[in-house]
Design brief:
about 25% strand, seven-stranded mixed beta sheet, Nucleotidyltransferase, domain 5, alpha+beta, 15 helices, globular, about 500 residues, about 35% helix
């Protein structure tokens, strides 16, 4: 039975940090704790993380978030987990020790494999089965590369592999299960999202033993109990969603074609298509949004590979000093012809080009740091528009409004620019961390059957007179990208 002193714990393990957030039974945020995690760059385009550091930050934030007088551990109902997708970890089946660094979703080491697959029968099989593109972004390319190149993985009888949810479950849950949740499985490029099973044909063609992969389960599943030694109490883990699906579920208000975009390290736009699974499209992805009580919901997705990471890079090269200065700097900027191609790790939807690299274009002696920062934010908005245009044209559906969250949504300048560019209403979640709220909502539903739709938004409407000049600049940006792609 629920009372006002019951709590839900949401673990949000992301690309650059881990957060644990405590919500009450009405999904009010009670407390949170956050730790940064390091990204390692061993080679050009390669991105890794330390699997042990990920576990340490999860444990530390769990303990810290709960350790306040207002929270009685006996009143914690359940735990939900949301995590960065596509990133993979290999570990020893017996010792549970990692056998290599975690390979990040941003890592491009699988680019040659993908290049060799394109145009082959395997490409069409992957497209049709998984709804995904052949791109180093997805887990399959990282797994194949690792099995071929990491000596510690030569004995496949003694290894396990999984996305971050799987790695956390193995180490946090009593009995060390080897499980993965379906939205995470759907991002590997190995999972048939129509039949809802690992695709044996793809596994065979890629020489990936099925035995090293986890069992796939639904999003609201009884994953097991958190080990008692972490918090001194066994707490059920009853929900998991990939981070972008969690955000979509947090925004969802039981209507089809709900559309949201989360601006974190990358930017991820998802449209809830209900029980309709769209076939593969060259420009965007078909993916699983959730599987709840044996009912699967599908989504279309467009991925911007560099969003918050682009702004962080501008900070690293001294375009601005700290995040508190961003809004002031944007307000001091001028509308110029300066453009940024946001391709620190290649371009995602709808261009899908892993070779193109970031660049700052059309600068002159009067270009200021403020103008360059503005161009960075504009490029993320331009990327969003290019995805929306493609989806609208493909499925013949007009998007009337969009819900957004994540770090970039804290900028009023960005929110208004996005509304002006798209010429639609932009609804900005007051809770910018909708990933944790989404999985907390699912955890609460699983535990109590009590639901509450999130409806706390700040609304931005398009301003008159700005559409023409902004869209002219957008077209210049898109033409520049296409020119670079055509040049090879």
């Amino acid at each position: 039975m629920i009372n006002k002193n019951n709590y839900i714990v949401a673990i949000d393990q992301g690309s650059t940090s881990t957060r644990t957030v405590i919500y009450d039974h009405k999904l009010n945020l009670i407390n949170s704790s956050q730790r940064k995690t390091k990204e390692i760059y061993p080679d050009n385009g390669w991105v890794e993380q330390d699997p042990e550091e990920i576990l340490i930050t999860v444990r530390e934030t769990l303990i810290e978030a709960i350790n306040i007088p207002e929270i009685n551990k006996e009143n914690i109902l359940s735990i939900g987990i949301t995590n960065q997708r596509e990133s993979i970890v290999f570990w020893n089946k017996e010792t549970l020790l990692p056998l290599s660094p975690a390979i990040s979703w941003q890592c491009l080491r699988g680019i040659e494999l993908c290049k060799n697959i394109k145009g082959s029968k395997l490409e069409s099989i992957i497209n049709k089965s998984t709804g995904l593109k052949v791109d180093p972004y997805f887990s399959f390319s990282k797994i194949v590369w690792a099995l071929k190149n990491i000596e510690a993985l030569s004995d496949t009888e003694n290894i396990c592999v999984g996305t971050i949810d799987s790695w956390l479950l193995t180490n946090l849950v009593e009995g060390n299960p080897h499980l993965t949740e379906i939205t995470n499985a759907s991002r590997t490029g190995l999972y048939n999202t129509e039949k809802e099973e690992w695709d044996d044909e793809i596994l065979g063609l890629l020489n990936i033993p099925r035995s090293i992969l986890p069992k796939v389960v639904q999003s609201n599943y009884n994953f097991g109990f958190l080990s008692k030694d972490i918090l001194g109490k066994k707490i059920p883990i009853n929900s998991i969603l990939g981070d972008q699906q969690a955000s979509l579920f947090g925004h969802k208000q039981d209507q089809l074609m709900e559309i949201k975009c989360t601006y974190g390290t990358g930017g991820f736009l998802l449209i809830d298509t209900g029980q309709e699974r769209y076939d593969f499209n060259q420009n965007f992805l078909s993916t699983i949004a959730s599987k709840i009580d044996k009912k699967t919901t599908h989504a279309l997705e467009g991925s911007i590979l560099s969003a918050g990471s682009l702004i962080e890079w501008l900070k690293n090269i001294n375009i601005f000093e700290n995040n508190d200065q961003i809004e002031e700097s944007l307000n001091q900027s001028e509308f110029t012809e300066t453009l940024i191609i946001p391709a620190l790790n290649g371009l995602g939807a709808p261009f899908w080009n892993a070779k193109i690299r970031a660049s700052i274009e059309n600068i002159n002696s009067s270009t200021s740091k403020h103008d360059i920062l503005r161009a960075g934010f504009e490029s993320v908005a331009f990327s969003t528009k290019s995805i929306i245009e493609t989806i609208e044209n493909t499925i013949d559906y007009k998007i009337r409004s969009i819900k957004i969250d994540g770090g970039l949504s804290q900028s009023k300048f960005f929110n208004q620019f996005l509304s002006d560019l798209l010429s639609i209403e932009v609804k900005v979640a007051q809770n910018s961390e909708m990933t944790s709220l989404g999985v907390a909502k699912l955890s609460l539903l699983k535990d109590s059957k009590v639901s509450k739709d999130y409806d706390d938004y700040n609304n931005f409407l398009p301003q008159k007179g700005s559409y023409k000049k902004i869209n002219k600049k957008y077209n210049n940006w898109k033409n520049l990208i296409n020119t670079k792609i055509n040049k090879g």
